[in-house]
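Hi again,

Forgot to attach this to my earlier email, sorry! This is the prediction with adenine bound. I've pasted everything inline since the attachment limit keeps bouncing my files.
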Amino acid sequence: MRLYTFSLVCERYFPFTSRIRHNTTQRTIIMPDEEKRTIKTIAVLIAMEAEAEPLISSFKLRPCPKSHHHAPLPSVVRSGEIAFGEENKAVEIVLVTCGQDSTHSVDSVGTVNAALCAYEVLKTHAPDVLINAGTAGGFQSKGCEIGDVFLVSEVKFHDRRIPIPTFTSYGIGAIETLKTPNMRAEITSLKSGICSTGNSLDATDVDREMMLQNDASVKEMEAAAVAKVCEMFKTPFVCVKAITDIVDGPHATETEFLENLAMAGRRLQETVPKVLEFMSGKSVADL
Ligand code: ADE
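Structure tokens for the complex follow:
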């Protein structure tokens, strides 16, 4: 056990929230020494099957004996005990995809299903860390190229505009991801930037203005929703996104996205195992 002040705990996991609650009274609480515990279970949440398939095959993940399906959700859970490195540092990987929409028979992408999936996997498996991995559009004005992989620093919404002063920052919903300085130093191929989330693949002029205000490097459809659920569960949140299309480029998003989806899946297959290997045998404080 270790003594924490409430504000210190907030600063570690939810720096943004603690900043806007600067006038919260400090109180001392006792918390288990979670940050120093070796990470045993990592949840990986990926919206689409095509994004997840290369990882499922390479790790030989199997239907999760504890929770393959979370009826009535369409989500699909696969898991496996993976040993990394010469020291065989084992970690349980619980990979959840959002599953097929029962009415439309397509992957249930977007914030609603991602939040529900996150809720179920956090409640059922109580992972030490949750990683939201997937594809995203990138801004060339921020130096993005197709095939880049980002370790996201902060997530925000661009389609929750509430022009009532007391609700504006709730709508944007900014949440910083877990700080992982050692992992960033080790996996140098990962770019860093802010991720903006909305429920559309394309973008209206107003979305574009909001993403500019959000200082976004990448745009996708789940991360800010998943981060919010992780915040509720006090579970460290990590976000890895591979770029399929250029948001501020000349080509139609949907064409570029479909052309590059398989390539981005392979980029995730190369990168996510490096992230998992770095985490295995370590504590959250070591990351
Ligand atoms: N996923 C991949 N590319 C995207 C984009 N441009 N917008 C939203 N989600 C995406």
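The mean pLDDT is 89. The pocket of adenine is lined by residues 135-137, 201, 219-221, 244-245, 247, 253, 257 (CB under 6 Å).

That should be everything now.

G.
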